[in-house]
Design brief:
heterodimer; A: 153 residues; alpha+beta; Ubiquitin-like (UB roll); DNA polymerase, domain 1; 2 domains; five-stranded mixed beta sheet; 35% helix; globular; B: 746 residues; Aldehyde Oxidoreductase, domain 4; 3 domains; seven-stranded mixed beta sheet; 17 helices; binds FE2/S2 (inorganic) cluster
Amino acid sequence: MIKKYSVRINKKVHQVEADENMPLLWVLRDILGMEGTKYGCGVGSCGACTVHLNGNAVRSCQLPISSLTGMEITTIEGLSAKGDHPVQKAWLDVDVAQCGYCQSGQIMSAAALLKSTPNPTEEEIENFMTGNICRCGTYTRIKKAIQLAALKS
Amino acid sequence: MKKTDSNYSRRSFLKVTSLSGGGMMLGISWFASAKPEDSLAELNIEPVWQEVTSFIKIASDNSIKIFSPNPEFGQNVMTSLPMLIAEELDVDWKQVEVEQGNYDPKAFPRQFTGGSQGIRMAWKQLRTVGSAARQMILTAASQAWNLPVTELTTANGMVTHAFSGKSETYGTFATAAAKLPVPKDIVLKGNQSFRLIGTPQKNVVAPKIAQGKPLFGMDYREAGMLIAMTERPPAFGMRLKSFDATAAKKMPGIVDIFPIQVFKDDHKFAGFDTRSFNEVIAVLGKSTWDVMNARKKIKAVWEVAPERKEMGVNNRETTVPSGLESTTKHYAQMLEMSKKPGVIERKDGDPEKAFADAKHVIERTYTAPFLAHNIMEPTNTFAHYVGDKVRFVAPIQIPDWIMPSIVARLGIPKENISIELVRMGGGFGRRAYGHYMIEAALISKQANAPVKLIYSREDDVSAGIYRPSYQLTYRAAFDENKKLIAFHAKGGGVPESPLHANRFPAGAIDNYLAESFVIPSNITIGAFRAPRSNFNAAAEQSFLDEISEYMSKDPIAFRLELLQRAKDNPVGKTNDYDASRYMGVLELVREKSGWGKLENAGKKRGVSAYFCHNSYAAQVIDLQVKGDQVTVELVTTALDCGVVVNPEGAKNMAEGAAIDGIGNALFGQLTLTDGKTDQRNFDTYRMIRHNEAPKKIDVHFVKNEIDPTGLGEPPFPPIFGAMANALYQATGKRFYQQPFQPQLKG
Ligand code: FES
Ligand code: FES
C-alpha cells in the first residue's frame, strides 16, 4: 500500500510516498536520487547497499520504508562533508578500489566497525566485513585501509 | 602477431584544432580513409570543452585534460592510459585531469576492454599522441620567442630556454601550437628517460568512488526515465509460449508490459552476439521496486524449445540442441567423450608407440563446472530511442562489437547511434556481450520513453553467459628410469574445448598428442577472465605437480627442466610461448617465496605457472587446512608483463586476480538441474569473502625492457593450480574436481 513517510537521512528529513514494503535501498536510489548506496543482490547477502541505522551498519535492501520512523539514517553521501572521513582517506591512501562498485558498502561497514571497535584485530575486521562481497578481490587492501584508519583516528 | 608500430605509422594521422576559448586539442585516428584535413568540426565535435572528445586538451590557463579512450571496469586504464600520454607530453601528472572518452571511433582508434590488451596496444599509439603535442608546443614557443627549437626544453608543462632563463606554460603556446601542422617524425622517449611511467600512481577516480558518486550505468538517471526489467524462461532450453499480464499491468507504478525479440530470426550471429534467451517479456515502471513486484504477477507459459539453427556471420551454421540439461549429465557426457578418440589438434613424435612402450603411465582427469561472472554491478543499460536515433549510456567492454548488431536489429545507420561509456562495476568478459543494449533500445522504442534496463541479481546469475564447463584428461608415459617420454592431453567441454594445443608442455616433450572434443549445449557461454586458460592452468599445473612427485623431482626444478628443453631444442615450430620468460617467473617466484629454503620446510605450499595473453605468471601459495576451513597465509606472485606502467594499479590487479582465483577454485560453481541454475543469488552462489581472502599477497615483477604485455588476466589462471597443489600438501589429497572446498568436508 502506498503511504506517506518521513525519513531522516543524513540529518535531513525527507517526505516520501512509497509502497510500505519498498526497501530503503530503492527509496534512496529511485525516489530520492541518492545513488551512492548500491544494489548488489537485494537479499542481504552482499553488503553493497550498506547504510548506517542509528550508527549501526545495516543492509538497506532489507529495510522496508515503514520500519524507519524515528530512525537516523546515514548513507555514503552523508558520511562526511568532503569525503574526508578517516575511512575514506585511508581508502585513498591504500588505493583500494578496482571497479569500485562494492566500495560504498565496504566503506560504510568499515566506518561502523571503527565506531564500535576503534582498534579492531585482524580477525575482528574479517568477521565484521564478511557480509561485504568484493568481486574484484580488494579484500587485502580493504583490511589494510581499515587498520590505517584505526591508526589515524 | 600484429605489430602495433607498423600499424600506426602506416595508417595514422594526427589532427589538431583550436578551442574557442584558446588552447589546443589533439587527437589521433587510425583510419586509412581519414584525411588530415578532416577537422574536428566536420566530425561533429564542437570546440567546447565539455563536448570535445579527443585525447588532449590544453587551455590557455595551462589546465590539461587527457581523455581515456578505453572502457573502464576496474583494470584502472583511466589512470594508466593517460599516464602514457602525460609521459611524452612532459606534464606534471598532478596537473592532469582525466576524463572518460565516449564511444567515438573517429576520435579514438581503439576502445576495447578485453584480452589484457589495453596497455599493450596503446603503448606506442598514446605516447605518440603525447609526443606530437609536445613537439608542436615547442615549435610554437620557438616561433614566439624567435629562438631555435633545439635550445628549448620541456618539463612539468613548461617550456624553458635555459640560456635566457625564459620559462612559460604550455597554455601560453597552446593556441598557436594548434595552428601548426602535426609533425611527421615523432620521436618517443627511451625507457630510461621516463619520469612518470614506472612510478606508482593512485587511481584517478578513487576520490569519487570513496564518496559514492554516481559513476555507474546503474546510477544513471534522467527526467522521464522508466525502469525496465525483463522476464525470461525459468530454464535454459525453454522459450515463451504465451503470457497474461493483466494482473501485472494493474500493479502500482507499472507503465507497460510487452514481449521483445532480441535478435531477428534471420540474424547472422557474430562471435559476441550471445544472449541467453531471445524472447523476453519487458516490464516497465516508475521504480525498480514496482517493476520487481509486477514481474511476479505475470502469468507466463513456457515450453521446451525445439532444436534451432543459428547462422553465423561467416555463414557457418550452428545447431543449438533441444532439451533441459543438467550438470550431472554434462559430467557423464564429458567422461564418456574422454574415452573416445577426439579431434587431433597436435601430434609430435610417436606418442602411441611411446605409450605402448611405457613402463608406467599416469592418467588423471580434471573437471570444472560453469562459472557465472557475477559482476558486482548487475547488467544494465540506459537507452533512449527517438525518431530514428538511439542514445545509450552503457557499461560495455567492446562497443565496436555490438554496433553492427544494433544496426542490424534496429535498421538505423551507425551514425544515428551514440554511446556514452560509463564506468563498469566489473566486467570479467560478461560485458563483452552487448545484447542488453539491443534489449534496452527495443524497449525504449516501443515504450517511446527513455529507459534504464536493469537485470536483477537473479537474472544476472541465472541467465548468464558462463565460463564453460570443462574437462581435461592427461596421460604421462615414463620409461624404466622414470623419465617422461610422452604426454597426452585430451580436453573437451560444454560446449567448447579448453585445449591450447601449442602451449607448454608442448614443445618440451618429444612425443606429444593433443586432442579435443565438444558437447553441444543450449547453455550460453562466453569469455570469462582468461578464457580456457583459467581451466587449463588448473588442470595442467596440478598434473605436472603430480608427475614431478612420481619422478621425485622438485616441482619448480621439474618445470624449469622442461622449459630448458623447450628453449634449447624445442619440439615443433608452433609453440606459442617464450620459454625464457616462463623460466624467469618461475625463478623469481622461487627466490621471493624462499622455495626449498630450510626455514620454509614445514610450510604447506604449492606452486604453479602459466602463460597467457602474452604474459607470464607464477605463484606460490602457503596455506593451512582445518576441517573444511582453508586459511591462505601468503600468495607470492611473480609476473612478467614487460614494462609496468603503473606499479600501484598493476599490483592491485594481481592481488585481485589471486583472490578471484582462490575464490573460484574453492567455491565457484554454477550447476544446472533440468536447465535451471541451482544458484540464483549470492545466498546460493558461493563467493569468496573477507575472512577467506589470503592474509597477505606479495607481487613481484620481472624487470625488463620488453614493451608491455597483458596484465589483467595472466595472474588469474595459475592460482587454481597453486591452490590444488598446496591443498595436496596440507591434506595428502589430490584435487581433480572444481570447486575444491566441498571435498574438504568429511
Ligand atoms: S543489495 Fe543489500 S545486501 Fe546485497
Ligand atoms: S572493487 Fe569491484 S567489486 Fe569491489
